[in-house]
Amino acid sequence: MCATEGHDEDEGRKSTSNKESLMAGTTRTATNHWEGDLFTGNGQVTLESSGIGTFDVNWPSRAEEANGKTSPEELIAAAHSSCFNMAFSNGLAKAGTPPTTLDTTAAVTFVPGTGITGIALNVVGAVPGMSAEDFQAAAEDAKANCPVSQALSAVPITLEAKLSE
Fold first, then answer.
1. DSSP string of 50-91?
2. Which residue, of 23, 106, 128, 163, has the greatest Cβ tally within 10 A?
3. Which residues does residue 45 pair with via DSSP β-bridges, in sequence order?
4. What is the pTM (predicted TM-score) of this model?
5. DSSP-based three-state secondary structure for 164
6. Residue 144: per-residue pLDDT
7. Do 126 and 47 belong to one domain?
8. Which residues contact 22 (CB under 8 A, 6 or more apart)?
9. Are 36 and 43 in contact (CB under 8 A)?
10. Of 70, 96, 126, which residue sits at a domain end?
C-alpha cells in the first residue's frame, strides 16, 4: 500500500507536496538603506517579505531614546518574542495542554561599544489544567528550542514564566 492509503491520489500528492515544501524551509528578507555616518546618518529598514512597512532607524534610536524610530535590537526582540510564543504554543499543544493565551515580552539590552549583552524573555500564559512547575519546564524547553533562541545562543537569555491569575 502507498503512504496515502485511504486518500484520493491527487489529495495524497498535494499533501506530500505541502510536506516537502515545509521541509524545504523559507527565507525572509529585510533591506536597509543608510545615508551618512553612524552617528549623524539615518536609515530605513524595509520588511520585504511581508511588505508591511518601512521603518526609520538611526544611532540615537539604538543607543538613546527610540523617538518613533526602531533599532536592530527592537527588531530582534520582535522576532524572538514571536518565535518563542510559536515554539511554546506548539510544545504545549503537543503535550495535550494547548494555551488559551501567551503574552511574551523580549527585552534586548544593547550597550554601545560592547554590543548586545542579554535578552530577557518574560511570558505570562493561561493554560488550563497546567501546574506552575510544568509551565516553567515547558517554557524552558521552548526557550532552548525556538530557532531564534538558537540563533542568538552567543547572548545570555533569561526567562521568567508564570501562569496568569
1. T--EEEEEEHHHHHS--TT-B-HHHHHHHHHHHHHHHHHHHH
2. 106
3. 32, 55
4. 0.84
5. coil
6. 97
7. no
8. none
9. no
10. 70
What are the helix (H) ranges across the chain? 9-24, 59-63, 72-94, 132-145, 147-151
Asked, for residue 7, whether it belongs to a domain, the answer is no
Residue carrying the nine cell digits 520582535? 78
pLDDT (tens place) for every residue of the chain, 165 residues total:
333 334 344 444 444 555 565 678 999 999 999 999 999 999 999 999 999 999 999 999 999 999 999 999 999 999 999 999 999 999 999 999 999 999 999 999 999 999 999 999 999 999 999 999 999 999 999 999 999 999 999 999 999 999 997
DSSP for residue 70: B
| 49 and 59 belong to one structural domain | yes
Which residues have C-beta within 8 Å of that of residue 99, sequence separation ≥ 6?
Answer: 88, 89, 92, 93, 125, 126, 127
